[in-house]
Amino acid sequence: xxxxxxxxxxxxxxxxxxxxxxxxxxxxxxxxxxxxxxxxxxxxxxxxxxxxxxxxxxxxxxxxxxxxxxxxxxxxxxxxxxxxxxxxxxxxxxxxxxxxxxxxxxxxxxxxxxxxxxxxxxxxxxxxxxxxxxxxxxxxxxxxxxxxxxxxxxxxxxxxxxxxxxxxxxxxxxxxxxxxxxxxxxxxxxxxxxxx
Length: 196
What we know:
- The mean pLDDT is 92.
- It is built from 7 helices and no strands.
- With 196 residues, it is mainly alpha-helical.
């Protein structure tokens, strides 16, 4: 899945959960933590694989349900403050939806579940046949753009577009949460810089 697809899945799931459990749409800081959480597995595994060669593929510790379970227990067990707990939960929802998305993503191409993607270190994935380094992401993106450029909307691409549109509409209906949290931080930073 692409980063924007992970963000979209995470947001739709988080918005639905906050509305079902609390009746209100998501707000402020938790949405920022959610956004980071939706990217977390790739932010861990892709650089460690593609850039540093620590893992044989881009699916390792960051995508592992075993590692994520331990992180979940640590995060929820160690947070007492309600605001921080909401942020931790949002981050974890993002990370879990990322892993779930990568588990289910092969189904879009008619392939079996990607179970091997989420069971590190119990299941090691086969190493890449070629070492492209950090350029691997650019190669994948060029292939994606070529598919988009053909104008032939595959089922996978159509689902991705529909998901993206749905998440943006839902985010707008929810009042564009997170924007105020960012602008508040930027303004505070600017005030501090002027005060020096």
